[in-house]
Amino acid sequence: MGEDGKHISAVIFDLDGTLVDTQRCVPIVLKEFLAKHGKVMDPEKEIKRVGQVHKVSAAGIVADYDLPLTSQEYSDVIFKMYKKRWSDVKSLPGANRLIRHLHRHGIPFAIASNSLKNNILSKISYQPDWKELFRVIVGVDEVKEGKPSPDMFLLAAKRLGVDASHCLVIEDSMVGVKASKSAKIKVVAVPSVITQIDEYSIADSVIHSLLEFQPQLWGLPSFEDGDEDFIEIQPFSIKGKISKNSSHMNNTTLTISLESDLSIEESLPDQAFGVYFGWANYENFGTVKVVLSIGWKDLTILPTNPKREIKTSLIGEDHQHYIHVDKMDVLAVGFINNLYPMRVEGAVDISEADKIIANKALDLPKFQFHSSSTSLLFK
């Protein structure tokens, strides 16, 4: 329920960067495209384009990089490149949990995206059951103006049969946040551009990921697992090098920091933050329990190219022989259910309570299942 006392009856989601990690492939594809034309991507320029209508961003890219193409020619080529990657795109942390929770409780929800409707349908077709779950979908080609105009959210509310003042928008971009404010709709921001975190203060709430979303604060039903110490997640993997001189061992845990290289930057969505747990694989040493904290570093030093800070703690065994290992592969399968302040710099410290929760959780069959397949996943 908002500050004005109005009850939230429906939820409107953005898609790219909010529910699915399509934003992750944008710079990868653009770098590849520009390289063919002898150009180098400027991260600062591309950050400013997040959330824009494609027509606007396409015109900007053609002009900024002095490409020998029209905007339409650029669009024809780049969309073919994007579409090849959509089948590999994963849902973002907490997205499936929230969507299915709303569906179980009969809360209407919709997608309103600056993408063309056919492209929205194509993207969600690779996510299990999403085409059936989302009964209302609004694309940019169905309104006079895309975001930051409020048209898209107002049309979504109309199709849901709910007054806009009783809707809640969940967005990752400032373009979308501004659109929701123009529509006079409450908005929760899940920033996909972490270096612009201060700008999101106009949102009604700002969270790191959908794993931190608390529906009861908006008059919606609480999560069934909301009182649990942990949340089961869609597994994600990290392959990393161990930072030299970073190991610290006591009788039950080995704390290690991972170097933040390109493979880690491109595999983790911006919304991955907080303390997770899972399984670590060490070359010839097998699979062990691990707790990992994921954060950011160098945001002020390298604002257009920040690095990840990842701390890990191995638990439950004698880890003396792991100290001299150089590489570690991690499969995260769960999230420690904490609310973290909207800090920007650094990973949160892993507490003894986190290790106890993770150790017990990883003994459960639904998490044990992943331990036997971890070594295969990293080959």
Automatic annotation (TrEMBL):
<dbReference type="InterPro" id="IPR036412">
    <property type="entry name" value="HAD-like_sf"/>
</dbReference>
<keyword id="KW-0285">Flavoprotein</keyword>
<dbReference type="GO" id="GO:0000166">
    <property type="term" value="F:nucleotide binding"/>
</dbReference>
<keyword id="KW-0288">FMN</keyword>
<dbReference type="InterPro" id="IPR023198">
    <property type="entry name" value="PGP-like_dom2"/>
</dbReference>
<dbReference type="GO" id="GO:0008531">
    <property type="term" value="F:riboflavin kinase activity"/>
</dbReference>
<dbReference type="InterPro" id="IPR041492">
    <property type="entry name" value="HAD_2"/>
</dbReference>
<dbReference type="GO" id="GO:0009398">
    <property type="term" value="P:FMN biosynthetic process"/>
</dbReference>
<dbReference type="GO" id="GO:0006771">
    <property type="term" value="P:riboflavin metabolic process"/>
</dbReference>
<keyword id="KW-0418">Kinase</keyword>
<keyword id="KW-0808">Transferase</keyword>
<keyword id="KW-0547">Nucleotide-binding</keyword>
<dbReference type="Pfam" id="PF13419">
    <property type="entry name" value="HAD_2"/>
</dbReference>
<dbReference type="InterPro" id="IPR023214">
    <property type="entry name" value="HAD_sf"/>
</dbReference>
<dbReference type="InterPro" id="IPR023465">
    <property type="entry name" value="Riboflavin_kinase_dom_sf"/>
</dbReference>
<protein>
    <submittedName>
        <fullName>Riboflavin kinase</fullName>
    </submittedName>
</protein>
<dbReference type="InterPro" id="IPR006439">
    <property type="entry name" value="HAD-SF_hydro_IA"/>
</dbReference>
<dbReference type="GO" id="GO:0009231">
    <property type="term" value="P:riboflavin biosynthetic process"/>
</dbReference>
